Amino acid sequence: MAMIKRFLPVALFFLAAGAHAGTDPSVSLHGKRFSTEFATTDDQRELGLMNRKAMDADHSMLFVFTDDEPRAFWMKNTLIPLDILYFDKDRKLVAMQLNAQPCQADPCAIYPSGNRSARYVLELNGGMAGKLGLKLGDELTVDGNWGKVQ
């Protein structure tokens, strides 16, 4: 039963996105669409965008968690500056860490959501949140084929 409770929120989120099952995965903020990769497993979330030398301006990575709690990301072995955006279970923006800098050697800075709980974390190229004029409370839209929930 605990396993069902743990994965039910993610399964429901994927079902909601399934209405657009024929399209490539993407997210939208302020009307701007970004192709996206989903990090839904512990291994995928741990690897994230590490070791990438570049990311297209219209690309992103969405980290999906099964619960709501304060989150903290770091930039170990991440080679590009990123905006780290934290969203609650309703996909409302609750915290931002802007222009987080690459880090290849310890100690690396930690970028937390503060005391705000987040279920989704979106990484964009550093500076993109400012270009979009993002504000707390903005809503994230997710579309496309999410694939198999793991």
Widest β-sheet, arrangement of strands? 5-4-6-3-2-1-7
Distance between the termini: 17 Å
Oligomer: single chain
Radius of gyration: 15 Å
Could you name the ranges where pLDDT drops below 50 across 5 or more consecutive residues?
Answer: 7-22
The main β sheet shows up as: 7 strands, mixed
Order of helices and strands: HEEHEEEEHE
| Secondary structure tally: strands | 7
Question: Which structural class matches the secondary elements?
Answer: alpha+beta
Our count of helices gives 3
Helix content: 10-25%
Mean pLDDT: 85
Judging from the principal axes of the Cα atoms, what is the shape? globular
Strand content: 35-45%
Any overview of this molecule?
- This protein has 150 residues and is α+β, with helices and mostly antiparallel strands.
- It is built from three helices and seven strands; from the N terminus they run αββαββββαβ.
- It has helices at residues 2-17, 42-47, 128-132; strands spanning 26-29, 32-39, 59-74, 82-87, 93-100, 110-125, 141-143.
- The longest helix is centred in the N-terminal third of the chain and has 16 residues, at 2-17.
Spell out the key features of this protein.
7-stranded mixed sheet, alpha+beta, globular, single chain, 7 strands, 150 residues
Topology overview:
Blueprint (H helix, E strand, L loop, with lengths): L1 H16 L8 E4 L2 E8 L2 H6 L11 E16 L7 E6 L5 E8 L9 E16 L2 H5 L8 E3 L7
Parallel strand pairs: 2-3
Antiparallel strand pairs: 1-2, 1-7, 3-6, 4-5, 4-6
What can be said about this structure in brief?
By secondary structure, this protein is of the alpha+beta class. It has helices at about 1-15, 40-45, 130, and strands at about 25-30, 30-40, 60-75, 80-85, 95-100, 110-125, 140-145. It has 3 helices and 7 strands; from the N terminus they run H-E-E-H-E-E-E-E-H-E.
